[in-house]
Amino acid sequence: MCTVEKRGQIFILTLTGGDEHRLSLDLITRIRSALARIRTDALSSNSSSALVTVAEGKFFSNGFDLGFANAAATQAERAARLASMVDALAPLLADLLSLPMPTVAAVTGHAAAAGFMLALAHDYVAMRSDRGFLYMSELDLGLTLPAYFMTLMRGKIRDLGLFKKIVMKSGKVMAVEAMEKGVVDVVKGSAGDTAEAAAAMAEGLAKRGWNGRVYASIRMGAFPEICRAVGLPEESEEDRRKMFASKL
Description:
By secondary structure, the protein is of the alpha/beta class. The protein has one domain: 2-enoyl-CoA Hydratase, Chain A, domain 1. The protein has a six-stranded mixed sheet, sandwiched between helices. The protein is globular and about 55 Å long. The N and C termini lie far apart (43 Å).
């Protein structure tokens, strides 16, 4: 379902196989396990690092495993299964937001609903222009949006027109428009070029030599509402001062 490879100073987290990379409970658990290993490796190393998340096939991620939810016998059980995935994804996004290194999502295919949230939880997004889109399908499916989804989008999609298109119209957003509106940082013409651009960006960030704990603290300070929404404990001013003093 996913693999981790370390290339010099960067970690490559790959969602493997040619399927839709639906965020089932199993896949969420496996990604979290991979991120835990990456975190441990990074904190035990004296060198800085960065993460690239990429996916094989047509999809970056097509959201939650709705097949699992819809296979339940009753409406109540279907709702419970969907809620279990909603609850499980928040800690995964918290893992990314607290990871002690810069993070880059290489969106080499469609990123829909929860898959879009997975991409947005990274610091930077590279996206292919020849195919693939960003899309919130909930309105089309008759589903409400979890509160932390909305908070994440408000924090990362600052253009009001684009926000309305995505949230209120279930509009599909292609790479060039997403870059023009500040949601995507790099656009390339193919999946391979997008993955390479994401890796190059990550390598450049890793070479800056930043302290990972400091980087994570600054990231969480930059997006406090998102961090609270996914359950990350807020750093106290005393903790930040201690970290600052330890680097003097």
